[in-house]
Design a protein that fits this description.
36% of the residues lie in helices and 14% in strands. The protein has 5 helices and 5 strands, in the order ββαβββαααα. Strand 1 and strand 2 form a beta hairpin. Helix 2 packs across helix 5. The relative contact order is 0.16.
């Protein structure tokens, strides 16, 4: 079965097994291994990607369901070899320890900020609530999201 989709700005036509999950397509067929599989049940958020503007657990999406979709993975955030401001903010705030959950946490933060560029702490907490982190915890991730908002605002001012 063939599907067509855009991943990180690149058009793909991929032959998939009808039982393949999106995470398996990304990791095993396309080599986009930044998306991690934690629980495989949609509970931990490590596999979060942005699909058509929404954060989704890629372990819970069948690959055929992504036909015609636009997907962004953690690899798609960098531009010209530069980390995305959200990635920079997570590093600056010490929000990265083991790194396993961070790609999903960053993607959830990105989806939130794309929809709501200036959330308060409670809205950030809610926006990343589907992501589990056992090493760093959530305060540093919330701080990172707040720092990312500042960086993004500074970038917008510099472009104006």
């Amino acid at each position: 079965m063939f599907i067509q989709l855009v991943i990180n700005g690149i058009n793909y036509k991929v032959d998939i097994d009808p039982n393949m999950r999106l995470i398996d397509l990304l990791r095993d067929k396309l080599g986009l291994v930044g998306t991690k599989e934690g629980c495989g049940e949609g509970e931990c958020g490590a596999c979060t990607v942005i699909m058509d503007g929404e954060s989704v657990n890629s372990c819970m999406v069948m690959a055929f369901q992504a036909d015609g979709s636009n997907i962004t993975t953690i690899e798609g955030l960098e531009e010209n070899g530069e980390l995305h401001p959200i990635q920079k903010a997570y590093m600056e705030e010490g929000s990265v320890q083991c790194g396993f959950c961070i790609p999903g946490m960053i993607m959830s933060t990105k989806a939130l900020l794309d929809k709501h560029p200036n959330p308060n702490r409670e809205e950030i907490r809610e926006g990343i609530s589907g992501n589990l982190c056992r090493c760093t915890g959530y305060n540093k991730a919330i701080n990172a999201a707040e720092r990312a908002i500042e960086i993004l605002k500074e970038g917008a001012k510099n472009e104006a």
